[in-house]
Amino acid sequence: MLFHEIYNAYYGVIADILKEAADHPVEPDMIRKMVKEKAFSESALAICPKLSSQEWPLLSKGRSVLKHTPHTPLSTMELRWLKTIGQDPRVRLFCPSWDLPADIEPLWKEEDILYFDRYQDGDPFTEATYVAHFHTLLTAIKEKKQISLQYHSQKGKQFHYTGSVQQIEYSPKDDKFRVLLYTKKSFTVLNVAGIEACQLLSKPAVQKAIPVEKKQVRLSIRDERHALDRAMLTFSDLPKVTRALTETSYEMTLFYDALDETEILIRILAFGPFMKIQEPKDMVECIKERLRRQRQLMVDSQLLTVNC
Question: Across all residues in the chain, what is the average pLDDT?
Answer without folding.
Answer: 87
